[in-house]
Amino acid sequence: MTFSDKSAFWVCNWVSNMVYPRYSQLFPSLKAVRDSLERSYIANQVNIERKAIRLLAERTDGAGEEYLTNYSVAKAQEMLETWKQLATYLIVKFNDMTIKPEKDGKFLRTPEGLGARVTRPGYPEPVARELVRLTGDKYAIPEE
């Protein structure tokens, strides 16, 4: 019941709840981060297991268990920090139903240092249609 940016539960839910309403626009960013983390874990798994097995076989002081615990804690912290960075990125990139342009991983700016012109894609088509269905012409712009 209390948000904490030190809790993976809350940080993952923070990101998810930003993505849900604009899934088609935001999910590709989430997927890229998620897949990058997953690839790094998979790429290192064999070496981590080999080292743990070696420590377990060579020592009786719990070094293998400690190694795996420390590795797991480090990866959990890495995931938490990466997800916080993703949350920050998403709120900046997609704030107020806009999409800020970027190039080479940096948000574009005007020569004066302001944010470059944003795009305003509006609601995804299925959402827009449902809004029209639910509200009729209540929010229609009068014709001149």
Write the layout of secondary structure elements.
Elements: H1 8-19, H2 23-58, H3 63-93, E1 102-103, E2 106-107, H4 125-135
Antiparallel strand pairs: 1-2
Helix pairs in contact: 1-3, 2-3
Description:
The protein is mainly α and 144 residues long. The chain has helices spanning 8-19, 23-58, 63-93, 125-135, and strands at residues 102-103, 106-107. The mean pLDDT is 93.
Distance between the termini: 51 Å
Main pleated sheet: 2 strands, antiparallel
* Structural category: mainly alpha
What is the chain-wise order of helices and strands?
Answer: HHHEEH
> Whole-number radius of gyration?
22 Å
Keywords, separated by commas or semicolons:
144 residues; mainly alpha; two-stranded antiparallel sheet; 4 helices; elongated
Give the structure's gist in a few sentences:
By secondary structure, the chain is mostly helical. It contains four helices and two strands, in the order αααββα.
